[in-house]
Fold each of these.
Amino acid sequence: MDVTLDFERPIVELWRRIEQLRELEQSDGVSLSSSIEQLALRANELQQRIFSRLTPWQRTQLARHPGRPYVLDYVAGLMTEFTELHGDRGGFDDRAIVGGVARLRLPGTSVDGLPVVVIGHQKGRNTKENLYRNFGMARPDGYRKALRLMRLADAQGLPILTFIDTPGAYPGVDAEERGQAEAIARNILEMSRLRVPVIAVVCGEGGSGGALALGVGNRVLMLENSVYSVISPEGCAAILWRDRAEGPRAAAALRITAADCLELGVIDGIIPEPAGGAHRAVAETVASVGRALAEHLGSLSGLDGAALRAQRYDRFRSLGPVDALK
Amino acid sequence: MAGKRWFERPDAMAVPSRESAADPATPEFYTRCPSCTELLYDEALREAIKVCGRCGHHFPLEPELRLLSLCDVGTLVEHDGHLVARDLLGFFDSKPYKARLASSQKAIGRSDAFYSASGAVWGVPVEVGCFDFRFMGGSMGAVVGESITRLYERATERKVPAIVVSASGGARMQEGVLSLMQMARTCAALGRLRDEAGMPYVSVLTHPTTGGVAASFAMLGDIILAEPRSLIGFAGPRVIKETIGQALPEGFQTSEYLLDHGMIDAIVERSALRSTIGRLLRQLLGLPALPDEGRTTGTPAPVREAGSA
Ligand SMILES: [Zn+2]
């Protein structure tokens, strides 16, 4: 939880000094309010300066920050009456993906009280949790559980909300043995056929096929400091330059930030994060996502099943323009 | 869109093979089998659609030969060979993506890594396509994605089956997240073929089929056939080995391994692919058997049984 990234250090250092001054004020009974105020101003300015020009690699680090909200935080903050539904009915329950039925709580919006199916990758915040969640890397069983829940939503006419945050699908022997490729492929195809609204939010790492397997939405949104990529920057660097340490360079080359993805047409909107990033203000981040969900669900409310399916088809059909030789 | 009529006769493909150039110890016009070291005469090897007559090793097969080997003579009409990639990312590694594309285009004489055609197999009209692994490892960027999407869309419109022969390392990194999106683009079109035309789709997996190609249309065949001993999987063996930190099981991610784990329908030798697909399509579409079926193609394709590895 208490992870400070390199580029955050100068900001955190200022905050620490402010804290020291406050303690001094308390213990010595002297007033240091003007110094504190000045330092706070400097800290805010510094934060703004650093966060207004984050590199793609810095955003990647933010996207992976263990303090960011995960799917269960969005469920807790935006929904009530959540019932988690488990299992792929084939012998497995993958804990790297969580899903269930819940009721949206977005007071003052048209979708307040709406039952939804919610599905997302769940990471852990420490080693123990991460071992339990397999670092948010799903096996085929997780994708098959997700598909089962999406079919339930489709049959009952419930909107589907997915929260994407995974380094990628799990590259392990058992995953391959049980058909990782098939499971991902199946989800992608079946999601394209759904007749209910699907909103996919990349809230952390959008890692390749393992992300897309929950990502075929009518709307695809990204949090400001999330990333979406065909391959991890380190994996790309290992292939191109035989050096995983070249990840920062690959992160820039791959155009993985929310702004890049918006420009390429891969996503429909960027959800703003609070100053300093989602991990500094989880509740605010969750609320920001809630506003975006209300807006986009509302905008899809006029479309029937066939229109939703057609809109999703056209959306993905247009991605990847090509030229024609004369 | 009107296609170009293409290779009326199979012998139009009798271009000298450059296989021998790779190995100075191998005489001109000969290729050494990497599996059994037999010296194979190039022209005979091409005639055997690049399968070693001694040990059955399947060499990589050029797309023209592949499509000719699958389809009825004189039925192939090419599509979408004029599509070329954009460099939307301005991607640059050791050289710019544009230059990488240009050198592949020059070496292979094609604009990208996928060949697409209308044709017929045993008299059944089909939309068919295959990868060219020589073109940037058969990687899937927007051109490959668009070509395959169009293939499924044509099949849907014409209400005919689709066949895709895969040989690809996966998504094309140089096109970034847009290459990832080709998985969704192609699979969505495949969904329409299934739901709107109700036509079967045969996926043929050849060496190697991995990454984003495996994790999209390649593993979604109503029927999935694989050539023997092909590498097929989602993650690469090296990545998996690094992740688990131990040796991989014997034969991991081969066609034989996938058959044993229920992931594919059958392993079919290259020489029997056409008859296997033709027979199945005629059966699935309720068409009568061809009168000379049993005789001209000999015994049914040597389909392996699970567990016989
Ligand atoms: Zn041999």
Amino acid sequence: MTVTEDRPADAGPPKEIGNSRRRKEDQRLITGRTKWTDNIQLTGMLHIAMVRSPFAHATITRIDTTEAKAAPNVVLVLTGEDVKDEQGGLPNVWPITPEQVTPNHPSIAVGRVAFAGEIVAVIVARTAAEARDAAELIDVDYEELPAALDLRDSVEDKVLAHPDLGTNKSAFWQFDSAGAGTGGNVEEAIAEAEKNGVVVSREFRQQRLIPAFMEPRSVVVDPTGEQMTVWSATQVPHILRFFVAAVLGINEAKVRVIAPDVGGGFGGKLQITPEEFITIMAARRVGKPVKYTETRSESLMAGHHGRDQWQTVTVAATKDGTVTGLKVDLIADLGAYVALFGGGIPVLGAFIFNGIYKFPAYQFNCQTVLTNKTWTDAYRGAGRPEATFGIERIMDELADVLGMDPLEVREQNWIKNDEFPFTTVTGMAYDSGDYEAATAKAKEMFGYDELRAEQKQRRESKDTVQLGIGISTFTEMCGLAPSRVLGSLDAGAGGWEHASVRMLPTGKVEVVTGSSAHGQGHETAWSQIVADRLGVAFEDVEVLHGDTQISPKGLDTYGSRSLVVGGEALVRAADKVIEKAKPIAAHLLEASVDDLEFKEGRFGVKGTDKGLQMAEVAMATFAAHNLPEGTEPSLDCDATFDPVGFSFPHGTHLCAVDIDTETGGLKMRKYVCVDDIGTIVNPLIVEGQVHGGLVQGIAQALWEEAVYDDAGTLVSASFVDYLVPTAADTISFQTGNTFSPSTTNTLGTKGVGEAGTIASTPAVVNAVVDALRPFGVNDVRMPCTPERVYKAIHAQDGAESGGGATEGAATPHFNEADTADRTDGSSL
Amino acid sequence: MTRISVTVDGASYSDDVEPRMLLVHYLRERLGKTGTVVGCDTSNCGACTVHLGGRSVKSCNVLAVQVDGQEVTTIEGLAHDGELHPMQAAFHECHALQCGYCTPGMIMQAIDVLNDNPKPSEREIRDGLEGNLCRCTGYHNIVRAVQTASGQEPIAATAEGNAS
């Protein structure tokens, strides 16, 4: 390959869908010719630094900006008081109940701060360094207030996160299968099982996580010119444009939002942020371009977090292991404010908490809670990892109580291949799936029976290194989302997606998509889809996205929706192009439209060798010299697709870990996953999505946690303390696929962006617990650190079951005695 | 301000810089070498890795004044005469990048790993890349890319066999 990639001269027309095309995106990314938001330099551009609250909850009694305003090259200083009539509040698009308690969320705090990291003042200066210097000169007086920090205390309103609201309880949301008419009464099922079957109930902790995308968030606003241009490292340029208009009262048509190259998101960049609004307000005041780029510690502290739930999961079953009911009670930490999707995140898990199993009765109760911590919202999986963890952990616990193999109890209860389509107890219509095939393939790749035999032998010999085998037979829902469903759940918008296909006279094709990629490879995969559909070369398709002026309509990228919703819009737009070109081709060929067939890019007259290539029709349409009467000289077409249903990827993930029971040390030995994500457009990209997803899910199981101290300070606010795994921590994976195409879209795709993350966390924790079963352990709290594993093994010695909570204080970096020695030089 | 002269990607530059200016900011803001990026503020992520005198350094951990009289190579200086460096080609071939933000630093570090050890084992590759974070790929394909660039068969070394 060369820097400017050439197309092989003899490249025929291979089928593109299913082809492991190397990515078009790579050229600029591997050579450093990138357009990250922070790269942008505009003439006269100014820079922002933020002053953030060090306190979780405090009244602001005074802000003295005098010295900062006098500092060299400071152009503007803003406080909440300066913008309080202009800034409005940051949006929550999904109030999950009409009664939801939603505190106003100002971009710059006015009078009071509700979490450590909240912005209290803003410096605009000629250089980023001068802005940072001046930020140090802002003098803020705070009166500290008691902070609502612990989730279980906060739900009881022991301390109020927002005293004026009178409660921390934001919303209570319930799904009950008896009430919905989709199943039986769960309390009756539990009562019956208590008499004649088994009831297993466990409390699980979903720790707080941080998305930790690699590119820190950045925003540049240029207010000069007729339209204000906003560049932002965002997943959601279209949604941002809407809210810039809605919140700040700027005419939507006067706002252009561009998401240039975006360095990862994982949900963390689907937020509408204070930093974006502040940069806009500052730029409008100074009339010059303004840039804000966050530091990593700001990102970890103030960008939204994910997960953070306590779950009580209760399963009822007969004595032979057939499940009869599932009850879920959870509390979810919203943080200090209700974010864009906010309380909708746990609700997204409600519809698949039952997993792949045939529960006749189900109830899901969710209480969202306000605390004085960083706000929470979507993080890869968004609601589905939490649900999948709950169901896949409890199925293992059920198997243990019944003395069954955990795979056996799953198979006994899952939806059989010949039962599809299957409407579950939540009312979801699972269109396709083959759990038997995925599981059989995974077992074979894993060597399941051999590893079970080894485990048995090691248990019998009381080996100090014990082997644990973890299973996760997951499903999830992708394709956010049918607009009607979102409407019925009180979400503020729909879930359609838009695409357009523009036929250029030279035969090249421009594809405009409303989805906004940040690493997913849309430019490559979309080219493959269009190349097949229109019979043009892969290299001749150019994919445009991420700029509201180029791609005027879209609902952006999150929830594994791009391919299943955006890809379908693309297919429909391409098909319209063919239909539009057909009468023109027929006219040029002097044939009847009915006699034409379109195949591999050519309109042929049936039974003859006469025909025209799509490119020839495009050129003739551009020239417009000889078109049928009344035909417009354009082949360009748009399509906006609103799905009618979700898609349900599924798979079987198997994990083997070795645990040194003398130290609690854990080593992952093997990870096998077989995912059924329907039709695969590009196997290479799919594998990459799975690998990355796996590591994020494994990281939740083993390493990552956002930890606050007793004062509400995030102590894991740098990459020193927040353990994003490295290459040295992880292993290579064995991945495979089975195929049961989705029936809800033309291509049969199901979505893959989140599957690895959703499935892997319970597989790993199940493996850890499985290894420790001989010690009477039935849970280890995440992240399963060596310390927790060790404590769980020795729980009978008096330690808390599950290994206890993470210490609120940061682990001391130095032994104090050592430090003293070093500083006085005596040990050197 | 301090005067420095430095060669970056084969071109010579002379500039007055603040003594506190980091090399990465000098590269990005003064020379426009925006291929090299900043990912953290604690020198953990390695996104800013460049070569200084032929060895990898995190350019957020070096002051611009420290490189006076030295030679710096960034991701933008790797390709020659329109041909990609073998490590760049391997990253493309093995799909070792997704969002691409860590990629410049990862490639620079991977080259340094092979300079030290031309035929590293999977373990040695993983240890050699420990100072560079990637959030997208799960490292699987990055390891394969380094194996490929080293002329070794890219195998995944879970004990039981091949991945993908």
